[in-house]
Amino acid sequence: MIIMRSSRWRPILSLSVLIITITFFVYYFVSHPSVRQQLSRTSLPVIGLLLVLYFGTVGALAMINSATLRLCKINIDSSDSLLLTAYSSIINFFGPLQSGPAFRAVYLKKRYSLNLKNYTVATLVYYFFYGAFSGLFLLSGYIRSWLLALVVVSIVALLLISRDRRAKQRLAALDLHAWYYLALTTFLQVGLVCLIYFTELKSIAPGTSFSQALIYTGAANLALFVSITPGAIGFREAFLLFSRHLHHIPASTIVAASILDRAMYIILLLIMALYIFGTHAQRQLKARMGS
Questions:
Q1: Is-contact 218 134, C-beta < 8 A?
Q2: Are 95 and 41 contacting, i.e. CB atoms less than 8 angstroms apart?
């Protein structure tokens, strides 16, 4: 009953957060000329570089998808993984209720007879690496905390697994020899995201250092774990504002960088959508689902 009620209120809450965030962006943009001035510094070469880096993240996500399936002892063609990643990203942002992961799971089950329980555990392994790397980035200002944070997170994770009989059974069904590939591809994804944020911040506030971008990236990434909106809209900005005492980036720069980043991501999705639907690539996915 509680799950049903929460699922009923989730779309309303998600829409409310989106409206509040957009209203805040518009108000802040209109009432703070400094934000407009900062955004005006973004040049065409920077926009081109950001698009290249964003396409790189799509490739990294496709590699992560392949690595996750390798844990489940399934090999997927790289072109199939790339197309599935791009299509599910578009659905996740523009579709109802962030339905990209659900579409991906249905496709993989029909196409590759994927065991969804094993896939869920493999996905949790990915989230572990994603959260660990993001946490290390967030704590990078305290150099001694890098190893300490990693050790603490690892110990807690191992303790939880050791107490859960079903989790141990599921892990036994995975090909854990492929975990290193998943770790590397996840680090590649987080690293590319860091470069994107660093490029945006340097364009808006040239005095921004790479160490600030590392902490900024960690805070932005961790917001995804509590988000109910597409792309963590509203939640990511809140995390970045609350963590200013760590990265020391002004609020006006955070808002300007967020506006630039959201705009670049939407442009990326529109380009992928034009390609996928213009070449009828979505029919290939549907045909493979039916085969």
A1: yes
A2: no
Identify which of 194, 195, 269 has the alpha carbon closest to the alpha carbon of residue 231: 269
Quote the pLDDT of residue 49.
96
pLDDT of amino acid 180: 79
**How far, in Å, are 88, 189, 208, 244, 255 from residue 247 at the CA level?**
32, 21, 10, 5, 14
pLDDT of residue 60: 96
pLDDT (0 to 100) of residue 96: 55
Count the Cβ atoms, other than its own, within 10 Å of residue 9: 12
pLDDT of residue 55: 96
Question: Which residues does the chain have with pLDDT short of 50?
Answer: 1-6
- What φ, ψ does residue 96 adopt, rounded to 5°? -75, 140
Report yes or no on 21 lying in a domain: no
Number of domains the chain is built from: 1
Q: Which amino acid is at 48?
A: G
Q: What angle do CA 127, 212, 22 make, to 5 degrees?
A: 70
Q: How far apart are the first and last CA of the chain?
A: 37
9 is a domain residue: no
Task: Examine residue 13 and state whether it is found in any structural domain, yes or no.
Answer: no
- Return the residue matching tokens 């050790």: 151
Q: Which domain holds residue 131?
A: 35-290
**204 secondary structure, DSSP code:** H
CA distances for 168 relative to 23, 67, 160, angstroms: 46, 20, 10
> Is residue 18 situated within a structural domain?
no
Q: Which of 200, 227, 203, 194 is nearest to 60 (CA)?
A: 194
Predicted confidence (pLDDT) per residue in 197-215, tens digit: 999 999 999 999 999 999 9
DSSP secondary structure letter of residue 142: S
pLDDT, residue 2, reads 39
